[in-house]
Design brief:
Layout lengths: L3 H14 L2 E7 L9 E6 L7
Antiparallel strand pairs: 1-2
Length: 48
């Protein structure tokens, strides 16, 4: 649990480096009920 926040931060950096955008509502590191996320290409302006 101590290193989970670092892993979550890395997710954003790695996704951005691969020309994506990570959208995340919950993480286990912030006591969320689950780790949920979705990734879209960074060229998409409104993925919803």
């Amino acid at each position: 649990m101590e290193i989970l926040p670092v892993c979550c931060d890395l997710d954003y950096l790695i996704t951005r480096a691969n020309h994506g955008v990570l959208h995340r509502d919950y993480t286990l590191a912030t006591n969320g009920p689950m780790c949920d996320y979705w990734v879209v290409p960074d060229q998409i302006k409104n993925p919803q």
